[in-house]
Amino acid sequence: MADEQGPITVLSDDESWNRLKSVSLGRLVTRVGDQLELFPVNFVTQDGTVLFRTAEGTKLFSTVMNDKVLFEADD
Fold it and tell me: How far is CA 5 from the centre of its chain?
């Protein structure tokens, strides 16, 4: 059950996955040096995994160079 504390709502794992399943556009955020890079991505969820497809290039390179990434999606 969602725990609302002001502007922040803490979701359970199930609530989080259900919300992710209801949308298809998210943002992948990586950091290279001191620079944050945001990439819009279409995604799906499957078996507790967020999946997105990308061509060879910046998004893929950023995730290989830095294994700490952030993924966010709005409902």
Answer: 22
Matching CATH number, 3-73, of 2.30.110.10, 3.10.450.50, 3.40.50.300, 1.10.287.770: 2.30.110.10
Non-local (6+) Cβ contacts of 10 within 8 A are: 2, 3, 4
27 token code pair: 């943002």
pLDDT in tens, 42-67: 999 999 999 988 777 666 666 666 77
> DSSP H helical segments within 5-73, as ranges?
13-21, 58-65
Report the DSSP pairing between strands 8-10 and 25-32. unpaired
> Does the global pTM surpass 0.90?
no
